[in-house]
Design a protein that fits this description.
CATH class of the largest domain: Alpha Beta
Distance between the termini: 49 Å
CATH superfamily of the largest domain: Mur-like, catalytic domain
CATH topology of the largest domain: UDP-N-acetylmuramoyl-L-alanine:D-glutamate ligase
CATH architecture of the largest domain: 3-Layer(aba) Sandwich
Low-confidence stretches: none
Structural class: alpha/beta
Mean pLDDT: 95
Strand order of the largest sheet: 9-8-7-10-6-11-12-13
Strand content: 15-25%
Amino acid sequence: MKLIDLIKKFPKHQIFGTVPYIDITKISTSLDGAGPDTMVIYNLKDSEDSKEKFIERLALSNAKIVVVPFYLEIDSNVCMLVSDLFFKHHQYKEICNFVYGEVGDIKLIGVTGTNGKTTTAFLINQMLNQVGLKAAYVGTIGFYVNNLKMSESSLTSPDYFKLREHINFCNKNKISFLCIEVSSHSLDQDRLGDLKLIVAGWTNLTQDHLDYHKTFENYFLAKCKIIEKMQNGAPLYLSYDETNLCQEIKKANLAMANSISLSSKVNPELLTTDFLRADFNIKNFSLAVSMLKGIGVNYPIESSSQLMPSPGRFYLVQYKSGIIIDYAHTPDGVEKVLKAVRALYPNKLLKIVFGCGGNRDKTKRPIMGKIASDLADSIIITNDNPRFELEIEIAKQIASGIVGKEYEIICDRKQAIIGAIKSMDLNTIVLILGKGHEDYQEINGVKHKFSDELVVKEVIGK
């Protein structure tokens, strides 16, 4: 749509700068990657620091059209549309419809929960494609069509404009289903907007994101908002062992209680791949099977032998007894991975390499240290994404929870991984946890290139 026509769709507004006679093909909330045909919609905070940073980044970008809630002193070559009402009333749907077209008949599937969202949603995407139904996935690891990665993702759940861009891609390519990871942040911030799910899954609920939600009750209530994002009568499934959580959700959502149920457990003896036979993935896979059944898709369990783990989730590198790379970064996630590996390889020693993210929930650090000391045989504490915190302070907080086990602190993550691998023998499995698929490490506001998988392959010569 021509920019000059699109502007007319905005509520009470002012225009500054020249309006170029161009087609708008994309809407974005980020200046990164924005081109002259991108309308950048930025709900800027009314603070001098936010304004200055935005103006600096705008000057370095290729963006030529921005929508903001108040006037800014910017280059006159940039067309600036000021509309406070647009942001106050969240009038996003109409603008997206004009740029991307209507949402149409695409079927949206959502998965929420503390751990297991990526695996469950990615499995559903693959399973639908296996039975001849074209599907895509969007979440932590990016935007995928079946197993083909189309683009990166900076958030677990994209913002509304990015979701509409993905839906537009799906519609143009006759993709009938989009599987979405739905985080508590996205539900709290209403990133799904008017979009409705035909079925949803809730994997579990354990401690995480208390830096954002402040209390566990707030975290739970934010997750419950997924029910508001479901079509009337659409089913919500929980993992088969989440009986108490299921009852709590029903109590909090009495009107929907009849649509909320536990998944049915798949017989583990029918599963032939190690990653699916891990206890937590039996739960994830069972949830995926039940969700599909809830929308009339009967998945043949024998086809599961062709399923692939999502990148960075229980990824097994064949070297000596094995090296496992996993994204587990919460107390529950770390505990489940360690227990699963112990069950699959009962006669092996487990060496864990992990850390905790900086400027995030600090209360989980000693808890994760305690879990490591309870379930692993040897421990190396290292960096995750320290962000703006001191590496050694994070490590000490983790170590404060370790009981009765010796441990090493090697803050340099690469050196920690190298040390773990070089010291392993044929009776030891090394678990490298916390970053999984991530290809960067965030230190003091800078994202440095870093990949656990690439470091492992460099060390073992693959």
